[in-house]
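[Automated response] Your request has been received and processed.

Submitted sequence:
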Amino acid sequence: MRDARRIVAITSLVTFVACSNGSDGPAVGTAFASRAVAACNDAKALKDAEGPFPYPDFNPTDPDPAKFPGVADALMKTGRDVHDVARGHARAG
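Generated structure:
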């Protein structure tokens, strides 16, 4: 799960920097910014295709230990999918 959070944080940071420097083009270069946006769009499409979180009543501040295995599986699947998308885009670039 740490890897998924790290990927989301890095992708968000890169997208923010690429899109918000106030100049005529992205601070990281147009080609890199385009690849970053494509990776984000693909990851979002995967996440959207998963549908809603399978445990809508799960409360992370007061968790039910009986739900841990299912919640962990759902979070790991999302993390693996996003990681695979990011890895694919990194290799293509």
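Summary generated for your ticket: The chain has three helices and no strands. The helical segments are 2-19, 30-50, 68-92.
If you did not submit this request, please reply to this message.
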